[in-house]
Design goal:
- The protein starts with a helix and ends in a 5-residue tail after the last helix.
- It is α/β, with parallel strands linked by helices and 466 residues long.
- A hairpin with a 6-residue loop joins β4 and β5.
- It has helices spanning 3-35, 39-52, 57-83, 87-104, 114-140, 144-157, 164-185, 189-203, 209-220, 234-252, 264-273, 284-294, 409-416, 419-427, 439-461, and strands spanning 222-230, 259-261, 298-310, 315-330, 337-367, 373-391, 399-401.
- It is built from 15 helices and seven strands.
- Among the domains are: 23-112, no CATH class; 129-220, Alpha Horseshoe (Serine Threonine Protein Phosphatase 5, Tetratricopeptide repeat).
- The longest helix has 33 residues, at 3-35.
Length: 466
């Protein structure tokens, strides 16, 4: 038998004696309270005694006697309330008695006479009927919060009482519906749409919420046309065309239900047919005319302010390191040869370069009905690619960073010999990335970022916060 098992075997009787002792003490206190006529308090002590030791016969006898006394008291309260017509008091007194019985029945067997249940059903029906009528009045007065509390109580006491469960759903849907109708009548169509959508998502159907939702969306939706993104020079215009396409795609895929995008091909064709050049510098009359031709509420135009395509260069540097080597030495006394570790200063090839693409785009959003500029700003973005690796003719695993004297002698040694520094240092020799990303990929990422920033701004302009 191992030490732990022997310890448990020796400790178990002590625990049992301690539990039995505490149980007897609690039972004794329960008996004293019982003799004093304090039956409720005695019940608590007998109950705790049996929790400590369910085999305590005295506690079980005491709990049975005092438990019956307390249960009879609670049933008397229920009976008096029922006879007096106080059905709320009767209902909750009976439920208290039933809960008390259920708790004590873990250790003893208490029962409630069946005629009490018949009286309870009578009081429950009377009480719930009164509460149901009260809730109906509150619903008529549009006091939905108060009605909600009553319906919740009814459903808790009897889930199948009349149509209380269905009416409980109305206490949240009805005020939301009315709020949505008022928002629609006030011209707040986005708010109305979102409220009706919330009701339908929850209930499936409710009054004419489907119709309100449809009409609200039609009135709230704004049609957007991306007219042109202009660049100066061949490279800039190539990027501008890429950005325009990315922006249209991003807006088409927006989760905002209130934006509808005009097909880019139709936009370009209509403007070309009408020989209409819609740019940031266009006048108000041109903006209004373009909006009418395209059937768009909002016109978006952009112009490249700056496009920097720094292709970068990967430079090679001769960098220092310390290498650990094995050296053969001779013991001057014994003339025996032995091997020891030594450190020597070496150099390795370190390659580093950055390729940076950046752009500034002036963006303008115009209300085509008025010709007014609703938003204008310069949106900037940058995409960077870094190449950093190293080569060494020998075994790079024998290297470690050389201390940098500029850090101070102690700090330099601490940095060079730390496991983190050595791990990062050695990782340069295993990196597979040796070339910059392609220009087309970086151009696409740069255009994606700018398009996303513009689209996020438009979604924010066109969203309703409930």
């Amino acid at each position: 038998m191992n030490v732990l098992l022997r310890f448990i075997v020796l400790l178990l009787p002590v625990v049992l004696i301690s539990g039995c002792s505490a149980s007897k003490a609690l039972s004794k206190r329960g008996y004293e309270l019982e003799q004093a006529g304090l039956y409720r308090e005695a019940v608590d002590f007998y109950y705790m005694s049996l929790q400590r030791d369910p085999r305590n016969v005295d506690a079980r006898i005491g709990l049975n006697k005092t438990g019956k006394e307390v249960l009879n008291e609670e049933l008397d309260e229920f009976f008096k309330a029922n006879a007096a017509g106080d059905h709320k008091q009767a209902v909750y007194a009976y439920l208290d008695a039933k809960q008390f019985k259920g708790k004590l029945n873990v250790f003893i067997n208490l029962s409630i006479p069946s005629y009490h249940n018949e009286l309870y059903q009578e009081s429950l029906t009377r009480y719930l009927t009164d509460r149901y009528l009260e809730a109906e009045e509150l619903m008529y007065e549009e006091r939905y919060t108060d009605a909600d509390a009553i319906y919740r109580e009814i459903v808790k006491l009897d889930p199948d009482f009349k149509d209380a469960a269905q009416l409980l759903e109305l206490t949240t849907a009805e005020p939301m519906y009315q709020k949505g109708v008022k928002a629609f009548e006030a011209g707040r169509f986005q708010e109305s749409y979102l409220l009706m959508k919330r009701i339908l998502d929850d209930k499936g159907s409710f009054r004419d919420a489907i119709d309100y939702k449809k009409r609200a969306k039609e009135r709230a939706t704004q049609t957007v046309a991306v007219t042109e993104v202009k660049g100066n020079g061949r490279d800039e215009q190539r990027f501008a065309d890429l950005l325009q396409g990315k922006l249209v795609t991003r807006l088409v895929n927006t989760k905002n239900p209130f934006l509808q995008i005009v097909d880019r091909r139709n936009t370009e064709r209509i403007l070309e047919e009408q020989r209409l050049n819609m740019t940031i510098s266009s006048g108000r009359s041109t903006r209004v005319q373009a909006g009418e031709l395209l059937g768009a509420d909002l016109l978006v135009a952009g112009e490249l302010v700056r496009l920097n395509l720094d292709e970068g260069k990967i430079n090679r540097y001769r960098s220092p390191a310390e290498q650990t080597i094995q050296v053969s030495r001779v013991n001057p006394r014994t003339r025996e040869t032995y091997t020891s570790t030594s450190t020597q200063r070496v150099s390795f090839d370190e390659f580093y370069g950055e390729k940076i693409y950046s752009v500034d785009v002036r963006v303008q959003i115009v209300n085509s009905q008025t010709g007014e500029v609703v938003w204008s700003d310069v949106v900037s973005s940058e995409v960077k690619d870094v190449v950093h690796y190293a080569r060494f003719k020998g075994d790079y695993r024998t290297l470690r960073p050389a201390p940098d004297p500029s850090e101070g002698f102690r700090a330099a040694l601490r940095t060079a010999f730390s496991s983190t520094a050595r791990r990062e240092f050695l990782s340069m020799f295993t990196r597979e990335k040796r070339n910059f990303r392609s220009s087309s990929d970086m151009n696409a990422d740069l255009a994606d970022e700018i398009a996303n920033n513009i689209a996020l701004r438009m979604e924010k302009m066109n969203s309703a916060e409930l």
